[in-house]
Structures are given as C-alpha cells and as structure tokens.
Amino acid sequence: xxxxxxxxxLSRLQFAVTTLFHILWPLLSVGLSLFMVIxxxxxxxxxxxxxxxHTRFWAKLFLLSFGLGVASGLPLEFEFGTNWARFxxxxxxxxxxxxxxxxxxAFMLEAAFFGVSMFAWNRVSRRVHLFATAMVAAGASLSAxxxxxxxxxxxxxxxxxxxxxxxxxxxxxxxxxxxxxxxxFSHMWVACVETSLFFVAGISAWYLRKDRHREFFLKSFKTxxxxxxxxxxxxxxxxxxxxRGVAIYQPAKTAAxxxxxxxxxxxxxxxxxxxxxxxxPNQKNVWELRIPYLLSLLIYHTPTAQVQGxxxxxxxxxxxxxxxxxxxxxxxxxxxxLAALVLWALWKWRRGQLRxxxxxxxxxxxxxxxxxxxxxxxxxxxxxATREVGRQPWVVQGLLRTSDGVSTLSRSPTAATLAxxxxxxxxxxxxxxxxxxxxxxxxxxxxxxxxxxxxxAQEGTPA
Amino acid sequence: MSxxxxxxxxxxxxxLILALYVAxxxxxxxIGVLSLFTRRQEDRQMMMSSIxxxxxxxETWLVIAGGALFGAFPTAYGVLLNALYVPxxxxxxxxxxxxxxxxxxxxxxxxxxxxxxxxxxxxxxVVGHGFALGGLLSGIKVVDGHFAxxxxxxxxxxxxxxxxxxxxxxxxxxxxxxxxxxEGPMHRRVQRWxxxxxxxxxxxxxxxxVLMPLWFRAVALQWxxxxxxxxxxxxxxxxxxxxxxxxxxxxxxxxxxxxxAFSLITFFVAFAGLLAAMYPYIVPTSLTxxxxxxxxxxxxxxxxxxxxxxxxMLAYNLYLYRVFLGRRAGPHQESY
Lengths: 463, 336
What we know:
Radius of gyration of chain A: 24 Å
CATH architecture of chain B: Up-down Bundle
Largest sheet of chain B: 2 strands, antiparallel
Structural class of chain B: mainly alpha
Distance between the termini of chain A: 68 Å
Largest interface: A-B, 77 and 77 residues
Strand order of the largest sheet of chain B: 1-2
Shape of chain B: globular
Oligomer: heterodimer
Number of strands of chain A: 6
Distance between the termini of chain B: 50 Å
Largest sheet of chain A: 2 strands, antiparallel
Strand content of chain B: under 5%
Number of helices of chain B: 14
Helix content of chain A: 55-70%
Number of helices of chain A: 13
C-alpha cells in the first residue's frame, strides 16, 4: 500500500486540487471573452444597444472569473519547481519553454488588453475597444493552446532524446505537434466554449423563468442555443476522437478508463462496460454490466478488433482504475445530456415557444437549463481527472515516473501548503458563487449612458 | 552562437525580465503595503484603483520570468524553487489574496475586509520576495543538480535584512508613484513615506553589501577581483546619485513624475549590482550559469520564441499605461 502522506502523494494531491479548481475559471474566461467579442461586434455592426448592454453584463462575470483565474493559476507554474523539481530539471528544455511561450505570447496579450477592454470604455474609440476585447479573447484561447500542448507532450512525448538525465529537443515541430496535441487542445477549447454557452444559457433561463428582462435574456438564450447546436455535437465527436487517440498512444489509460482487464482473444469482440466495481488486487471486476462488441466498435469501428487488457500490462505500469473509469463515464454522460438538452430547446424554438410574446412558461424546461449551467465545469474536471490519473504511474508517459519527478521535500511543509491551498481555493469557489449570485440578482444595467462615439480628448490617447 | 554566449545571454534576458517584474509589480506591492498604514477608506480605495488596470499585466512579468527560467535553466528552476519552497509559497499565497481583492472588494458588503486582504496579501508577497532573495544569497546545497537540503535552510539573519531592503524598496516605488496623483495631507504623507523608506532601504542595502563579504569569504574574494571591483563601485555610485535626486525631487511639486522615474532608476541600478555580484553563478557558489543551462538548441529556439517578443510585450504595456495615464487623468482610473 502506498504511503498516503508521502511527499509524492501530498504533492500529487496538491497539484490535483490546484488544477481542478483553477480550470473552472479559464473555462469561463476563454468562452465568455469570445461571447463578448461577438456581442460587441454585433453592437458596432447593427447599432442595437442591447448588444452593448450584453457585453457589459457578461463582462462583469468575465472580470470575476479572470481575476480568479489569474489568482489560482499563478501557483501552478511555480508548483512545477517547488514540488516537482526533478520533473522540471528533466523536462524543462521543452516543457519549460512552452510555459514561457504561454506567458510571453498569450498571457501578456490577454493581461495588457484586459485593462483596456474592461476599464477604458470612455478612453478609446469604439473600434479600438472592440480590438482590445478581441485581443483578450485571442490571448485566452492562445493560452489554452500552449497549456494543452505542454500537457499533451506529457501524454505523448515526441521530438526529444534523453541525455544524462535531461531531455534534449531533437525536433521542435514533432515535439510541439506531438500525437496528442490536436485532440487534446480541440477537446479542451471546445469544452471552454460549450461550458460558457451553457453557463450563459443557464443564467438566461434563470431570468426567463422569473420573467425578468425577457427580451434581453431571450437574446442571449437563443444565441447560446444556436451556437450549441454546432458545439455540443462537435464536442461529442471530439471526445470520441480523443478516446480513439488515447487507445492508440496510451493503451494502459484506455484499459483503465474502460475497466478492461482481459485482452479479447482474436475473433471475439471486446465489450463495453457500462458500470462495474473494479477489484484492482484481483485484476477483475467484482460485477459488471457489459454491452458485447461495443468497445471494439467504439475504438476501431470493427466488432472484433483487439483491445489490450490491463492484465497484459505489467503491474508497475498500470494506472489506477476506479477514478478514470467513473470520471470518464460521468463526463460522457454529461456531454450527451447537454446535446440532448439542445434538441429540446430546438423543439421549443420550432414551435414558437421562444418568442417574447409567446414565451414557454413550463417549469421543467427552464429548470433543466438552469441546472445545466454548472454541468460543463463538472464535466471538464472529470475529463481532466481521467486524463491525468490515467497517465499514472508516469508524469511524462514512458520517460519519467511520477515518483521520480518529485522535489526533495519533507512531509510537514508539503502537508501545510496542501491544507492551505485546499482551504483557500474552496473559499475562492464559495465566494465566486456568492458574488456571481449577487451580480445576477442585481441584473443587467439597461440605463447608464452609452460610451462616447469618440474618446474624451486626452493626452496619450492614440488618434 | 556558442553555448557559453547563449547561456550568458539568457541569464541577462531573465535578469531583465525579473528587473521589469520587481520594478513594475514592486510599485503595486509597495502601494499594497502602504495601504495597511492608511486610515481613511477613500485613500485606500484611491490607492487600489490607481493600479486596478495594471496589476495583472505587471504580474505577468513574473509568469514570463518563471517560464523563461524553467526553459533556459531547468536545473536552476528546480533547485531554486525546491530550496525556497516556503518563501515562494508565501509569495504565491500573498499574490492570490492581492489578486482577488480587486474584484471581491466591489462585490462584498464589507469592502474593508478585502482592502485589508489587498494590503496583507501584498505584504506577505513582499516578505516572500525578500526571504527568497536572502535565501538565494545565503547559498543552497546542491548535489547532482538537485537540491539536497532541508525546508528551513534558507532561514538566517540575512533573509531578514533582504526582506527589509526589498520591502522598503517597493514602498519607495509605490509612494513615488502615488506622488503624482495625490493632494493635500495625503500628498504630504506620501512624501514622508518616500523619504523614510528610501533611507531605511538604503541602510538595509548597505548592511547587506557590507555583511555579505564578511559572512561569505568567497564573496569577498570575488567582489575585490579586478573587473568586478570597478563594475560594482560604478553601480554603487550610480545608485547613490539616483537616490539623492529621488529625495530632492520628492519635494518638487511641478515635476510630480520625476521621483517615480528616479526610484525606478535606483531600483534598476541596485538590481544590476545584485546580478553583477552573483555572476557567474545562478545559484551562488553551487551552480553556475553554464552548468544550469539547457542545451543550445533550446536556448536558440527560446530566443526566437520569447526574447523577440519582449519588445512587443513592452509595446502592449506602454500602450496600456498611455491609455490610463493621460496627463490630466492622473493615476486615477474610471470605475466600471
């Protein structure tokens, strides 16, 4: 049995806690910033004031999530050094400079234009302002690209050689565009967009159910639903693409995700297990509900394709089973449920029940949408847990074991920081929810004057 | 380019990024520390909103410094952050509270709590910086490219001195920044803060400079060796000169931005002195710049990826400051 309070375990828990909390806010700032670019551009193009009010309203929530994203994200970069010094030394030559790119290319773009976009409505012209908002969104998405790229490299390291205990990059293109980069980044980026769309739609549904600002929130509800028509099925497709990629490049992770112990003999299909209770010491499932052939079909699109089972992977290279198995299933269920919810909304739309004059008033429909608001966040965290726990026992798949990546640490400072992070991040999440509620109760500002067409004549404002 | 030149170049670039970070976030953090000593709520609010649009762009230099060090000197990144676990965590926890207080203050019914979180977070981060610097200067035990000491190795009288120097250094930056935007009694208070903290910081730096060679023989030999002796004395004179102008300019109303400019110069000169004093080590006396550097392909790749972006990043920052620091606007910014 692994020592639960060893510095390795404490450091893993600390990284898991900080990451799982941190992800929640970038999910929202990546998606909301794109939403704001669309509403602000629509305002400039159509001159419809409601679009401006929308930009300002969602900007309040964006501001909150951006601040929390910065606050909760900074420790992650430094934790690589503080808790994973051996991993840092080993992989810094590639991994570190990708993090550097993220800061220099993406984060700085976002942070600098963030000030202009949030606070300079009356200081710059409307076009310059839209440009600033677009740069915030571009910076946020570019950040997501570099971070996911760095993580994808840990899943499928490529383009490097190991020399005297450190990696040396032999081919940058191969390392950056490693096998996992595309499905990792696209799945996560679309998760940001989808989570934010359901967040916006859920909040809009909350107002519509209470019949507050009907016209205003009908606009954001329908915009989100219309976008989700493409995004929700796209995400199901990208999820499938990721799962098939994982099966090729990280077969042990797939076996753990699917609680698949026994490699299916030639000519027989591997079944897909709906639910099970995995028994790791005895290398089997205590009980299971299995759909025959489905796993082979899902991964290789042929009913009898061979899928490697955990028993054929040496015990020291096997990931834990329980967490990847259930978090993967819950994530998938949420993704399918959200796609179904979009169909329901389309049905209402078609029947004319999403019009201001004949708005649907049934409780169930709106409540289903309100309760969908947090689901994207939960699904993303579950997906992350699947991704990271499924890579164990490796920190860099096949090259460096997690237990060989940890710093020289003693128990008490590590336990103390773990406790502090857990407490502080929980507090941040609670306050985020409380303050979001407060912003929502106040509602949008529909009366304050629009920003001037031309900025106030001022020193230092570019013409 | 040879590996040796590349490694030195990257050490210089990271020095520059770190200098930008400590100077820019230094004035934010200094204002945070000063807000703890400001009784009137309007004054505290003015102090916070004077940096509301900048603090995150300023903090970004830390992210970039971290990434650049991680990529260019992976061994030093691991050793330093591992050895300085406690001070770095202090800095991170402090910065978390500093960051969230801006937004939370506006939403909370008890905004004084978040004004305190802003001040206290800044103070904890500043002390973390000071301890980390002191810990670095006291030397770190390295075996086979890994940190080989205990979690409290960094703690000694030296980090306490450096924390005082760094803390008051940031306060000068913050106070001289506030000089341009304040009136009446607040302005006089800010003047007093500038002068007092300038004197304390100078004393602390002088103490560190005198004590370092006494405590560490190797340092004494290195500092008195031929080229280093001249570099260090030139930098000391530069720092003293900028310091004198800073004190004088504090009392000239019509040049209210001059003290900030000179406090920045003092800071950069002191920082350059620090880097020169450490050369050729990246972790003094246990890890040289050469030994800690990544391979030359990585360094060249990063040169194109990151170093070439530094002017672009500076341009964003200048634009940001120009938008918010129009001459008539002062450091106050509109609320949203």
